[in-house]
């Protein structure tokens, strides 16, 4: 077992989610602060989680620190505005917002922050077309980068958020490049059932 794995195991068994780091002469270990989330993943309802978990899982895979929570443009308008207004000061750099039906969440968040906002239209009773149009058809001046309907959109929102961060973060860029390489290899290695 390598030393990094030993440190990870030790930090996990001690319940230190921020991990451990060597200190001074490497004889002592000190707790590291948990890294602040760079991406906020917001969804209009708990019922959106099955879709939006694809964004969170992809960010986790790429090692991008993130937070996820439910906020609704219609049901919790004040809390949504408060979240968006404070997001940049809390260290968030990209916000992903998924909502379905009359999907105003991404647009409302974008109205309250200068951060890039990526919208994920949730599959709805109208196959997600209502969500897509509600998310994408923003008036000029307040952009929402809108992804595909459903799970592919949630996954791509995470990849796009990582690409935005990768312009100024080499670690995330390398993870993103590795993800792409692995994906290409899997496609080229595909065997057809014949
Ligand atoms: C939207 O209404 C949510 O984003 C969700 O997609 C949809 C339905 O919400 P629930 O009635 O399932 O809470 O605000």
Structure description:
The chain has 194 residues and is an alpha/beta fold. 44% of the residues lie in helices and 17% in strands. The chain contains seven helices and seven strands, in the order αβββαβαβαβαβαα. A five-stranded parallel β-sheet has the order 4-3-5-6-7, sandwiched between helices. Strand 3 (39-43), helix 2 and strand 4 form a beta-alpha-beta unit. The N and C termini lie far apart (42 Å). Residues 1-32 have low confidence and may be disordered. Residues 44-45, 47-48, 72, 99-101, 122 line the site of 5-O-phosphono-beta-D-ribofuranose.
User: Helix count, per DSSP?
Assistant: 7
Global mean pLDDT = 89
β-sheet strand percentage: 15-25%
The largest sheet has its strands arranged as 4-3-5-6-7
Helix-and-strand structural type? alpha/beta
Order of helices and strands: HEEEHEHEHEHEHH
Extended strand count: 7
Ligands bound, unique: 5-O-phosphono-beta-D-ribofuranose
């Amino acid at each position: 077992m390598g030393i990094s794995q030993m440190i990870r195991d030790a930090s996990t068994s001690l319940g230190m989610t921020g991990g451990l780091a060597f200190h001074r002469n490497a004889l002592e270990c000190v707790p590291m602060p948990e890294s602040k989330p760079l991406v906020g993943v917001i969804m209009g309802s708990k019922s959106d989680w099955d879709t939006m978990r694809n964004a969170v899982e992809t960010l986790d895979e790429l090692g991008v620190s993130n937070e996820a929570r439910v906020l609704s443009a219609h049901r919790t308008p004040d809390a949504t505005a408060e979240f968006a207004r404070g997001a940049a000061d809390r260290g968030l750099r990209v916000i992903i917002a998924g909502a379905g039906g009359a999907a105003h969440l991404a647009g409302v968040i974008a109205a309250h922050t200068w951060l890039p906002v990526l919208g994920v239209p949730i599959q709805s009773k109208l196959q997600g077309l209502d969500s897509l149009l509600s998310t994408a058809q923003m008036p000029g001046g307040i952009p929402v980068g809108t992804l595909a309907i459903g799970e592919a959109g949630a996954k791509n929102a995470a990849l796009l958020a990582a690409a935005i961060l990768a312009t100024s973060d080499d670690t995330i860029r390398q993870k993103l490049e590795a993800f792409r390489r692995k994906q290409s290899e899997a496609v080229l290695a595909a065997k057809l059932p014949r």
